[in-house]
Amino acid sequence: MEEKPVKLNVNNRIYELKVKPYQTLLHVIRNELGLKGTKYGCGTGECGACTVLIDGKAVHSCLMLAAQAEGKIITTIEGIGTYEKPHPLQQAFVEAGAVQCGFCTPGMILSAKALLDRNPNPTTEEIKRSIDGNLCRCTGYVNIIEAIRTAAEQMRRNQT
Amino acid sequence: MREFSVVGKSVPKIDALSLSVGKPLFTDDVEFRDLLHAKILWSPHAHAKIRNIETREAEALSGVHAVICFKNVPRVLHTTAGQGWPEPSPYDTLVFDNKVRYVGDRVAAVAAETEETACKALKLIKVEYEPLQPVFDSERAMDEGAPVIHDEPDARYLIPVFYDPMHNHCAHIDLSIGDFGAGIKSADFVIEHKFKTHYAQHCTLEPHSCISYFDSYGRIVIRTSTQIPFHIRRLVAACLQIPEKMVHVIKPRIGGGFGSKQCMVIEDVCAFLAMRTKHPVRLAYTREEVFVSSRTRHPMVMWTKTGVRKDGAISAIELKVLSNTGPYGAHAMTVMSNTCAKTLPLFRCNNIKFTGDTVYTNLPKAGAYRGYGETQGTFAMAIMMDEMAAAIGMDPVEFWKKNTIRKGETSPIFKALGEVGSGVDMIVESCSLAECIDKGATAFRWNEKRERYKNQLEGALKHGVGMCCIMHGGTVSLLDMASASAKINEDGSFNLLVGAADLGTGADTVLSQIFAETLGIQVEDVIVYASDTDISPFDKGAYASATTYVAGGAVLKTAQKIRKKLLNEASAILHEPKDNLIIEKKAIVSTKTGKKIELGQIAKKTLYTNSRRGRNLFQIAATASEYSRLNPQSFAAHFVEVAVDTETGQVKVLKYLAAVDCGTPINPKLAEGQIHGSIINGIGYALTEELVFDRKGCVRNPSFRDYKICSSLDIPEEMVTMLVPSYEPTGPYGAKTLGEINISGPLPAISNSIKNAVGIRLCETPFTPEKILKALKKK
User: Fold this and answer.
1) Strands B352-360 and B169-177, sheet pairing
2) Rounded mean pLDDT of B601-613?
3) Number of domains present in the structure of chain B
4) Contact, A107 vs A26, CB < 8 A?
5) Which of B546, B496, B547, B485 is nearest to B521 (CA)?
6) DSSP string covering B654-719
7) Could you read off the pLDDT of A15-52 as tens digits, one per residue?
8) For position A72, which CATH number holds?
């Protein structure tokens, strides 16, 4: 199949690429853009390891074609914080012991970010719901929920 | 508990920030030029001979670099089990065979320039099968006249143990201690049950992945998602028929293991293709392939017969186990032997009979899975405990306390049976199980709830509480070896090299803490690297939960050696006798004169300037090893509260409490994380996770949609973990092991709580609504 030109806005940077029409956003993010924080876990939208933000909403990038993401604002884990200056969620995950193997972590953090950006003071139930599409096999979710709660507090404090 | 400065503190996991910001740390996160993609052709038959394979068309496809199958790969019998050599698993596996033994067995593999081309090439391979009668029922596998799954004449164990592949009989162990018959005779109640556990998959979030390439010196490098880098080196070298020195295995960050990466799963194929093509080759499983063609938990059928006296003493225990290893015997014998060796010593009973058999079937490959036989054995035995307590009218809490091993006691099983052959005689030197039971019961408000649920409310929802205790012997006695090397840098930091494979558990952090504690430094001063077979010293790998205890022991010894060298140097520099010197806050200080020298200064002197004062220039460094002289047990008491919907059959876990004795928790936060993860995995195993097969032996639910693991919405409303430390004198800073023990609780504890709620006894797993409704109807 022929490649088609696509313009993607990822982490506030414009990438002009040629992709095959059937290529997923996940494939393009990992293999064309070299952003490896977005993970393949199932390819069928069930585990959430490939979660990215599309216009602020958590989306499974394995279920979206790269071409469908044109004209949208795409944020990957690399776009919300750095090693030197981590996002409060990233910091909270570290401190709460919410990271074990870390394979689900980027997707988990992005789902949580989508929640906190629209709801700065979520209930435990809302936190649980926001990450229901992100599977984790290591932590049992307890410390992840705690991390999101702590990050929410921190972010509220930063606001004031 | 003794107070330490770094040990016992919840320092953040050292790789957590890098993982949180999405650094490319996993196997598949690196890029290579001219990388080829590998795909495997899977068997559609449960049992068949391959009459012929025609690969020419696939080979001719543009972009295909190699096709391998039994015709062009040497026939090297091996086991894929990542165990010490000689492995206690039968050599019954080939890289490719002219026979397939389950739906999802390997037939051929392709390396091509893109994944699409590789997939296309698979379709061009023509295979002529001669289907054979399959064996699916483990209880019929040894029948006279049953189809023989391993009819090749040369399948064998390297060690002298029972093996009868002509009857699909992969392993057998029996054991008799005391006088079982007399024990049964003296019992007031004799209880018998049959149990069945099911096929389950580990579901590591990172699928198995591997990248192989040649370095500039003609050696093959294998970057792989494994728990056993050093065993992979040995196994791949054997399969490729090259010396071990030609193989270099790198273990990057691993996205979970839980036992599924304690086998050589794909490394042989990936390395072969790299060798054939002289290109870097990437082989990464899809999720469906992980479900079908990696490893699973051994399903077991178990029969128990126990005798109990009115005074609460257990007079006899019999456990009979029939384990299904699927088509290959990796971990077949050892998982089965552990149902006895790591489960039964918990019980204070002197008349014990154990019979274990493992059989081959044409269903997916079993292997190591967190719990390793102990999960299955604990399921049967902890239900028997509940039943015995009920028979004599004793509260389970009292009954467990009365009948479980205590500090200073021993079990005849310790000596009689290890994972491989006889075990090691030992006394339990650390055990806070009784305290776990007491503290757990109080915090859980056991008595109050037990009393309350005697009178259930009207309506469909019935509540119940159940409990169980678990023991985990945390090493494979005498066979586990780990080592560490370390050196000082001129700023007083240290490089710590360990062979131990951190799978995401936090082992690197815990080992750094042990090292830092010993040298009076902080975790930030330790640069840990693990593991790489060219650089790290040997380690048997991450299994048996043994890393903290065994690798921790090696790290402790290494640090002690370095400490001695530092004190020697400081003594010479400060002109102070060594006895006056202590090491604290990254410096050595005289307790008499207050004279002080920083570790960085010592390093600089030994590296640069000592020679000017007539002393040696040298690197302060050390290497040390530790092995599993003993197998100290960790303990846990689990309490669970459930609600059973008698109309729908649904079980909801409302509250779960685990009180755990892992010796000194080196890092309480990480310890807590291990407990949470194990319990949630165990709850999934108990309630929703099950591989289902069609009549042809094909997995019907190889996806997260149809194989349901717990999500954030499925966890109990209340999860309580209590660390109840003991101090294990043989462990580093009193530590024991923790990785596996807690996965074994939910199955029996939930069965016991369902019994308490609605009076039905579920002995077949998982406890699905169908099974519950069926049992309720029968009641």
Assistant:
1) antiparallel
2) 95
3) 3
4) no
5) B496
6) EEEEEEEE-BS-SSHHHHHHHHHHHHHHHHHHHHT----B-TTS-BS--STTTS----GGGS-SEE
7) 999 999 999 999 999 999 999 999 999 999 999 999 99
8) 3.10.20.30
Q: Are residues B450 and B333 in the same domain?
A: yes
Contact A101 B10 (CB under 8 A): no
Task: Collapse the DSSP code of B579 into the 3-class scheme (helix H, G, I; strand E, B; otherwise coil) and give the result.
Answer: helix
* Average pLDDT in chain B: 97
Contact A40 B16 (CB under 8 A): no
pLDDT at B419: 77
| Residue B1 binned pLDDT confidence (cut-offs 50, 70, 90) | low
Alpha carbon distances (Å) from B435 to B403, B406, B441, B726, B745: 14, 11, 10, 10, 17
Q: Cβ of A100 and B12 within 8 Å?
A: no
B458: containing domain: 296-477+629-778
- Across the interface, whether the CB atoms of A46 and B704 are under 8 A apart is answered yes
Locus of tokens 């209340």: B718
pTM of this prediction? 0.97
- Tokens 């690429």 found at: A17
Same domain, residue pair B772 and B750: yes
**Taking CA atoms, what residue in A is nearest to B253?**
A101
Residues 2-31 of B with CB under 8 A from A: 10, 12-13, 15-26, 28-29, 31
Contact A101 B204 (CB under 8 A): yes
Give the minimum alpha-carbon distance from B529 to chain A in angstroms, rounded to a whole number: 16
Nearest CA in chain A to B503: A101
Residues B202 and B331: beta-carbon distance below 8 Å: no
Q: Do B255 and A105 touch (CB under 8 A)?
A: no
**Which chain A residue shows the shortest CA-CA distance from B702?**
A42
Q: Do B486 and B595 sit in the same domain of this protein?
A: yes
Query: pLDDT digit string (tens) for B564-601?
Result: 999 999 999 999 999 999 999 999 999 999 999 999 99
Contacts of B256 in chain A (CB under 8 A): 100-101, 103, 137-138
> Are B21 and A134 a contacting pair at CB < 8 A?
no
CATH number, residue B534: 3.30.365.10
* Average pLDDT of span A67-82: 98
Indicate if A93 and A61 belong to the same structural domain.
Answer: no
pLDDT of residue B340: 96
Domain assignment of residue A124, yes or no: yes
The CATH code of the domain that includes A138 is 1.10.150.120
The label of the residue with tokens 């570290």 reads A94
Q: How far apart are CA B195 and CA B7, in angstroms?
A: 42
Does residue B179 fall inside a structural domain? no
- The ipTM estimated for the assembled molecules is 0.99
What residue numbers bound the domain in which A43 lies? 4-78
> Is residue A21 less than 8 Å (CB to CB) from chain B?
no
* A103 and B CB contact within 8 Å: yes
Q: What is the pLDDT of residue B16?
A: 98
State the total domains in chain A.
2
Q: Are residues B501 and B439 part of one domain?
A: no
Give me the residue from B287, B709, B712 closest to A43, CB to CB: B287
Whether residue B636 is found in the same domain as residue B746 = yes
Residues B651 and B750 in one domain: yes
A88 touches chain B (CB under 8 A): no
- A100–B677: do the CB atoms touch at under 8 Å? yes
Furthest-apart CA atoms within chain B: distance in Å: 90
* Whether residues A26 and A55 fall in one domain: yes
Q: Does A115 touch chain B (CB under 8 A)?
A: no
A101/B253 Cβ within 8 A: yes
Of A78, A106, A129, the domain-final residue: A78
Measured on CA atoms in the order B448, B450, B455, B460, is the torsion positive or negative? positive
Q: Are residues B461 and B558 in the same domain?
A: no
Of B762, B644, B752, B754, give the one whose Cα is nearest residue B196: B762
Residue B664 lies in a domain: yes
